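Entry under discussion copied across for reference:
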Amino acid sequence: MSLAIFDLDNTLLSTDSDHAWGEFLLEQGAVDPVAYREANDRFLADYEAGTLDMQAFLEVALRPLAEHSPEQLAAWHQQFMASKIEPHILHKGEELVARHRTRGDTLMIVTATNRFITGPIAERLGIDELIAVEPEMVDGRYTGRASGIPSYREGKVERLEQWLADSDLTLDGSWFYSDSHNDLPLLEKVDHPVAVDPDPTLRDVAEARGWKIISLRD
């Protein structure tokens, strides 16, 4: 039994769930229609370029969680799952997850998107273990701040190492599937790094190092 780790956005999904949540909030009129759209698009571009200021991003991305009640957020998330996520769940991604499940591997998503957004997506995919950015909650409401180490770039490795320290698993025989060069720190840690529909930078690295390259979109 090995650990099978999956990135989420543009790996098991054919969309970026963080950006899609921002678009959904704009459609609901829940955020400033000009400033938030500009920031949402800019942060996505920065992420793709590998220049994302994670703290600046989280200040903007988590603020709407603090501005609305948990009940309103939960209702919105149900709509979000139906309209923005379900159409983008990749069938071949589900088949890949199922193959690892059949082998008896421990399934995990490690994502830089926050748990509010990704928790229900992981549940929908039948993946119990999730490492994500943790939005802070106080007295049952989100504060708009993150708790702990953000699971982004090297932070993914740190958070995974924390998780492993509390489990009886190791990275022996481990797999990690990702589309993004931002995930190189974790791809370099596992025994079986797999580039999934990779961005140009990751494709170049994968080809140079002889890593497996697959597509879940064909």
